[in-house]
Amino acid sequence: xxxxxxxxxxxxxxxxxxxxxxxxxxxxxxxxxxxxxxxxxxxxxxxxxxxxxxxxxxxxxxxxxxxxxxxxxxxxxxxxxxxxxxxxxxxxxxxxxxxxxxxxxxxxxxxxxxxxxxxxxxxxxxxxxxxxxxxxxxxxxxxxxxxxxxxxxxxxxxxxxxxxxxxxxxxxxxxxxxxxxxxxxxxxxxxxxxx
Length: 195
Prior knowledge:
The chain has helices at residues 3-26, 33-39, 54-76, 82-99, 107-116, 120-143, 149-169, 173-190.
């Protein structure tokens, strides 16, 4: 690759990474192109050399957020049993997503209400993230020998995404904590399903 192509690709990756972080922190509607480009240390005019629209950037930033999330989980569960891996991922999802943090946020829980109103391309990327986490959980629950492990995986994802969404809405820390603890207990109950 020529140097200018390498630089262009690096700049594009920087914009996507910056957008991913800003969208998770501030939301899609509150984050404009100018915000992303300024945070990336670039001029707003350069945006359209890399992307056709804000919607294209949102889709790619969503994909990047999912990649960061799975890299984080993969590193956290190296060498763990399926049971321990599930406990680690669920705990990280519930508590890290609630508290925030770079590379630890799930678009489904953090941007779900905004993604609902997005175009089909953005929603398709969000659903790819959903399928990826349910497949990862189905793999683990299958290794655990749980009957109907695919349905259990779907229920776990619905539980933790909903819990994080609700816990972030709560203005009362005790209520928020209770929501997360109940979700974790529900997941543990689901994992005790017949084998």
